[in-house]
Amino acid sequence: MRIAYLDCASGISGDMTLGALVDAGVDLAAVQAGIDSLGLPSCRLVVQETKKCGFRATQLTVEHEPEHKHRHLHHIEAMIAGSVLTARQRELALRIFGKLAEAEAKVHGTTIQKVHFHEVGAVDSIADIVGSAIAWDLLGVERIVCSPVPTGTGFVQIAHGRCSIPAPATGELLRGIPLADFAAEGELTTPTGAAIVAALVGEFGPLPAMTVETIGYGAGQKDFTHPNLLRLLVGESSAKATPSMSDTIVLLETNLDDVTGEAIGFASERLRQAGALDVSTTPLAMKKSRPGVLLAVQCRPADAEALAAVIFRETTALGVRRSTVERIVLPRRTTTVSTAHGEVGGIVATLPDGSERFSPEYDACAKLAAERLLPLEQIQSAARAAFTTG
């Protein structure tokens, strides 16, 4: 499997991303051809080699005629629809702009349709985003992994005035994404860079097991006391031999010693209905020798706040511990098998050695067992046998 790793030691921006992609071997002329078809006023991508604190990198800048124009999402969607971009490139570009629109709508209390793009609606930002979408497609990677992202510290001047870093839209885009502790003065991660990460990256963490083929360096516009570079490592992962995958989830935990069993059961069901990936309870010995329960909830990063609200509403919790964890999961698919007792659905997981394991669905087996007046295990065994025999 072809894999890319974004090493965001100094944050990420649109021009740093596109510069790193070009430095890693993406054809600049092909990217420029796609940009030309957008109908932007005389927009040209210019790259040159530069050095940041002694390290070489590709510096990308967007040269264009001056304009005083702000755009809404539908304007940009129309430009992309009328371009020569491939279907995949259009989908990537629209996904990034969609993330930006959602973030801007959230922080300004409006709708996606009414969002008025300021900085990200300018020619250079459009070129950075669409150019990056084209370049990612041309790079041909199947999996993108990213390091924790530093934001920088201090303040930044935007169209709405002076704001603390991360800027409001950047902060919204980085919800659920691991952030790095790096107290550099200045904006390291821009809304454009955050949108690219939020839209395209599937996993976060350290450099995964891979054979590196090429490395690209994209330089930021500013100079710091550290190398202001985005490093992109591209190569082959071990996914062909080991089909397990990893992703990042949020773990919510709280200790309870003054809640009834009924209330915990009710809260657990509400949490599952609200989108929790898993809910579990563990007996605890708490202060004053009182028996208690550890309530643990696994969820997607985007669902963490909503699920924490359920915990506070349905239990007596005064606080919830939140941590971001990486999990390893097996590829899986759903299927249905036919048995002498009826059809049973289930999940097929692919193990690291390539073999498959079938787990029949409990509800389907329980329903057949009740209807046929048979033991549950007999239905489950018949379902597993039906899968094995094909």
UniProtKB/TrEMBL annotation:
Keywords assigned: Lyase, Nickel
Positions of transmembrane segments: none
One of the record's GO molecular function terms: nickel cation binding
Top-level lineage group: Bacteria
InterPro entries per record: Ni_insertion (IPR002822)
Family from the record: Belongs to the LarC family.
Official protein name in the record: Putative nickel insertion protein
Naturally occurring in which organism (per UniProt): Lacipirellula parvula
